[in-house]
Amino acid sequence: MTSTLSDFTAVLEQAAQAFQDSATSRPDAEKVVEALLQAEKVAKQTAIEYSFSQLEGQWRLCFATGTRKIRQGGIKLKKGYYVPKIAKAQISFDSKTEKIGNLAQLGVLTLKFSGPARYQTKKNLLAFEFTQLQVCLGEKPIFSRSVRGGAEKEQAFDETPIAKLPFFAFFAISDRYIAARGRGGGLALWVKSDRPSGKTA
After folding, report:
1. Is the domain defined by 5-191 classed in CATH 2.40.128.280?
2. Does the global pTM surpass 0.85?
C-alpha cells in the first residue's frame, strides 16, 4: 500500500516520538519500514538536498532493518525492529571538523568509535571511516587505540573512493529524526538525543 507524504511523515514522527516518550504508542514495524521506503522514494523523485550541518549533533538509533541476499542477486530487506532503549546505540556528527562518532553502551561499559567523514550534498551521502576506539567505564576512559589503520587511514581518507568506504545515504532529515540507507542496503531511523551536540561520541 502506498503512503501519501503526510502519511509516511506522520508514521516516522510517531515512531520518533514513541522512542522519546513511552506514553506514545509505537507504529507497527511494517508501517515504519513502508514509511522509510516511501520517504526514500520521494527524496529521489524530488532530488531534495540536505546539508552536512543538518546532521549536526547526537542521534539515538531507534529503528533498523537487516538485509539478506537473494538468489537472483541483490538484497532483500528483513523485517524491521525497534532498538531496545537499554541497548544504547548513538551516532554523532560534527560538520565543522568533519568527524563522525559511534557509541555503543553495554551496561557500565561504553565503546566509542570516531573518525573522519565527508558529505556529498547532491547525493545526501556521507562517507566515513572509524579510525579511533575508546573504551569507558562509566564516564572514565580506560582504554584507547587506533583501529582500521588509524592515522594512515585518516591521511588517505580524502583520496579514498566512496565505493571503498562505509556510507549512509540520507533521505529524511528533520529536527526530530534522521533516516538513511547504509552501504549494506539496510534502513535506519535515528532520533535526536537529549544530550547536547558538539563533540562526536
Report:
1. yes
2. yes
